[in-house]
Amino acid sequence: MRWRLGLAGMAALVLAGGAFWLAPRGPDLAALKAAYRPPPGIPFPPDNPFDPAKADLGRALFFDPRLSRSGRMSCATCHQPQRNWTDARPVAVGDAGAPMARRAPTLVDAAFIDALGWNGQFADIESVTFTAITGPHVMDLDASQALARIAADPDYRRRFASVFADHAVSAANVSAAIATFERLIVSASHSPFDRWIAGDEGAISVSAKRGFLLFNGRGRCSECHSGWNFTDGSFHDIGVARGNDRGRGVMFPSSVKLQYAFKTPTLRNVALRPPYMHNGSLKTLADVIALYDRGGIDRPSRADPIRPLHLSAQEKADLIAFLETLSGPVASGAQPVLPPVVAQE
Ligand code: HEC
Ligand code: HEC
Q1: What angle separates helix 171-183 from helix 52-62, to the nearest 10 degrees?
Q2: DSSP 25
Q3: Which of 56, 111, 234, 340 ranks highest by number of CB atoms within 10 Å?
Q4: Is there a shared CATH topology between the 14-40+189-324 domain and the 52-111+124-186 domain?
Q5: Are 180 and 51 in contact (CB under 8 A)?
Q6: Which atom in ligand 1 lies closest to the alpha carbon of residue 178?
């Protein structure tokens, strides 16, 4: 025990030394840590409040392949619980077998994000659902057919009737139920990083602690990956790739800075869900750090904090060690047992 305390003390000294190097005036580590403390609960909008039966109904719908034209693809095909609610592909592949333009984002902590989609085209979680169901590159099913398939199931009809005041199997109610379930998919705040900011000095390595200071200091990462879920909810061009996808610029064609700008993703569980970026173009965290070290593509839209960092090999390793401490369990409840039905036209 004595030895362990001694080691922790040494770690604190090394850390203080690192802090001195990174920011000559010395950051206030306690204040920095406090900025990453998780919120007390999940926010639900007043017009779609939490209700356990509604969440269970949403869970069943989320995993139901009847919502795709082929009857083989559900929301969970691309947002897989066992893959941190994404699909491990560079870009998602739709029901008809054609690739989508972008990667399937994780749904972890989506409840806390204001604008959804890589370029923020969705104002809330509710409005994503029927775009996914009816999108020709996604689930490719008419809204009316989707609703007819759900309404044909007496168990679903009974559940909609008991959850919703209007008893209807409607697009609004399907979206409300699925959104309620999605909001429950949250990082459970038990990662080594969470334990460290809660006071367990031994929860993360000395290298990861140096990485945390670099993340908040010279690396300028926290200017965009800010707060407990590591996103400012905003849109930036970090110089990822040339191509036709102008991201947020599609919605704001005259804004210089929004061309090639995409939403800052959460970094929770990031080490567990490669590949990275909106187009899945980077395979590993080392590739991501190499991009930031180069400063990405230098063009008028590139965000100001993005510029060559000239990191040493040790600093790169420290940043990766820090990012790896953000992995922890995700809460959401169990997968439902679905009837063995494959709906066909
Ligand atoms: C074929 C793969 C695929 C299927 C099936 C799919 N999605 Fe997605 N999902 C994506 C992709 C790709 C994006 C990003 C789209 C974009 O930004 O252009 C996305 C984005 C989202 C987002 C926004 C997340 C964020 O953080 O911005 C939500 C929420 C979502 N999907 C929910 C659903 C729901 C609910 C279903 C089922 C009704 C579903 N998805 C079915 C691929 C899929
Ligand atoms: C100017 C804002 C900004 C800064 C500064 C920034 N990031 Fe990012 N980060 C983003 C955006 C935006 C994306 C997504 C870009 C895309 O998909 O094209 C991203 C993506 C990532 C990803 C991939 C996540 C995923 O799910 O694909 C990682 C990891 C990451 N950043 C880590 C860092 C680190 C480490 C630093 C500091 C060295 C940093 N970021 C600095 C905005 C920023």
Answers
A1: 100
A2: T
A3: 111
A4: yes
A5: yes
A6: 35
User: What pLDDT digit, counting tens, does each position of 89-125 carry?
Assistant: 999 999 999 999 999 999 999 999 999 999 999 999 9
Q: Name the CATH architecture for the domain at 14-40+189-324.
A: Orthogonal Bundle (1.10)
Does residue 309 line the site of ligand 1, with CB under 6 A? Answer: no
pLDDT digits (tens, 9 = 90+) for 24-61: 455 789 999 999 988 888 999 999 999 999 999 999 99
Tokens of 92: 């998602």
303 alpha carbon – ligand 1 mean position (Å): 26
Tell whether domain 52-111+124-186 is in CATH 1.10.760.10: yes
Question: In testing the pocket of ligand 2, which one of 288, 307, 323, 325 has its CB within 8 Å of the most ligand atoms?
Answer: 288
Measured distance between the N- and C-terminal CA atoms of the chain, rounded to whole angstroms:
67
